[in-house]
Amino acid sequence: MRRAQFLASSAVIFSFIIFVLYGNHILVNVSNRRLMPNTILFLEAQGQPQTDDIGILNGVGREFLPSFKNPCWYEERKNNHELGKVAAYYISTTKPLLLSKCHYKRQSDMILRCLPYFFLIGQPKCATTDVFRRINLHPDVVEPIVKGPHWWTRKRYGPPYASRPVTFSEYLDVFNAPKIEENTRCDKTLHRWSNEKITGDGSTSTLWDSSPTMSYLYKIMSSDTQSISGKLFSRWHISHSVFEKTSGYVGMNTRHDPKSKNVIQNLQEVKYLQYYQYKDEVVLPFTVANVIHSVLPNSRIIAVIREPVSRLYSSYLFFTKKTSLSPETFDRNVKDSIQKWQDCTRQYSDRTCAYNKTLQNSLGVRLHNGLYSLFLRDWLKVFHKDQILVLRMEDYHQNVAETIISIYRHLGLRALTEEEEKVVNMAPVLNKNWKKPTIGKMLESSEKILKEFYKPYNRDLADLLKDSRYEWEDIYLKSEELNASHLTASSYA
Ligand SMILES: *[C@@H]1O[C@H](CO)[C@@H](O)[C@H](O)[C@H]1NC(C)=O
Ligand SMILES: *[C@@H]1O[C@H](CO)[C@@H](O)[C@H](O)[C@H]1NC(C)=O
Q1: Are 92 and 193 within 8 A, CB to CB?
Q2: How far does residue 359's CA lie from ligand 1's centre (Å)?
Q3: Which of 67, 439, 479, 480 sits between 20 and 30 A of 11, alpha carbons compared?
Q4: Name one GO molecular function term (predicted).
């Protein structure tokens, strides 16, 4: 009898050891399958280990912990801060039997690493600082160390966006993984670990600033077009018919480029290097949305946008040197920028011009930032519409509490208790424009041309989102009423 027990328990211990070894092995294999080997090898061959690659190194290949809501994994702590081997800790999904007790402890040399669960992608000057802060006030949201790391769009590419390329590992450091880990508990009913905490990236360049990504993809595609574009396209969840309707995505970017009928075929035919002398003007069908989707396909996306004319003025006040600020300078810049925009769109599609960095940099006012539909359309091509929540800043200001609740719902966060809700709603409004110089409203002439300029794009946006609020008629009506009653300050200036 004793002997039988001994044998039985030895067998259990033995199979446990085998399981731990083998279980690890399985997970490692699974993760390897998710890698995009060609892409990675290609970059290593190019000798650009610092810039990482579109597969975000081997790190992307790992499986995220199934019991964490936020995309996280364990890796070996390494002094040189490089990505370590995949650790198979919360092995819950593969062998539930062994997890009934939930008492696996992680080894001390393993650390939790996390990517963001959600992205607040835009737009600058649309109250995103305040929105982001209120999201972070939810007890299940862990605030990152910086609101906008701008890693996907800019910093990973180094100069001129950062003094050197910011590594993937440094980006991960932005997310407070120990804080996320704190809450890990044993779910007695499911017999596994569970963790509901999430964290987010609030970089407001993410929606629109895809030019560095395009230049980079272009560089690596120029000798491996088929493989990389094939991979990015294979992630597209909609049919390519969307592309056929809109010309000018690839090739020479011309409006009437007959080749853009079949994008994949086109990508294979085009030898990018021959067409682009200036890398800032490379415009590809892929944006930073494709790259994020290839790594984090389940991301929740939030975009806050605002009536584009007032957004532009606010952005002008914020980003221009104080000494040169005046409604007259703004007016001149507006006219000049619209001229440049029209010169571009005579030759190229709206989309091509919107992503053209040379053009963006030459504009005295950031006109392109208000062309919401052009950028959002690209996000909607990659992510399912249910994954993207678009909000108007005006509605947010009108009803902060209700808007925040809709954001929590979008992020799958639990409803707050009354007490918790008070904390979120009572928090003072954060506004980086508080020291905005008082130079008064924009000139009527600027307002008039800008409204005309944005009108077709607003309509396009209303069509895209199937919501007439995005023509901002209510806001325009309100400002006219204000004008009529001789109230000077426009609340949206
Ligand atoms: C980009 O903008 C620059 C400056 O406006 C212009 O000269 C160039 O033709 C544009 N190129 C594309 C591809 O849009
Ligand atoms: C404001 O009122 C003035 C004079 O009444 C008018 O000329 C102007 O067009 C109005 N502006 C707007 C934005 O309605």
Answers
A1: yes
A2: 6
A3: 67
A4: N-acetylgalactosamine 4-sulfate 6-O-sulfotransferase activity
- How many Cβ atoms from other residues are within 10 Å of residue 261's Cβ? 12
| 3-class DSSP state of 175 | coil
88: number of Cβ within 10 Å = 22
pLDDT band at 456 (very low <50, low <70, confident <90, very high): very high
Partners of 198 in the beta sheet?
A: 141
Q: What is the Cα–Cα distance from 317 to 50, expressed in whole angstroms?
A: 36
Which tokens hold the place of 222?
A: 């120029």
Residue where the block lists tokens 């810039």: 51
Is 352 a pocket residue for ligand 1 (Cβ < 6 Å)? yes
Q: Tell me, what DSSP letter sits at residue 47?
A: T
Residue 288 tokens read as 């930073």
Six-digit token pair at 292?
A: 């994020």
- The partner residues of 304 in beta bridges, in order of sequence, read 391
For the CA of 353, the nearest atom of ligand 1: 14
- Whether 287 and 378 have beta carbons less than 8 Å apart is answered as yes
CA distance 301 to 297: 11
**Nearest ligand by distance to the CA of 445:** 2
Nearest to 210 by CA among 293, 116, 115: 293
Which has more pLDDT, 180 or 294?
180
Q: Whose CA is nearest to atom 4 of ligand 1?
A: 359
The vertex-445 CA angle with 441 and 447, nearest 5°, equals: 55
For 206-241, how does the pLDDT look when each residue is reduced to its tens digit (9 = 90+)? Answer: 999 999 888 877 766 655 555 555 556 554 443 332
Per-residue pLDDT tens for 74-106? Answer: 776 654 433 333 333 322 233 333 334 454 445
Q: Cβ distance 183 to 142 under 8 Å?
A: no
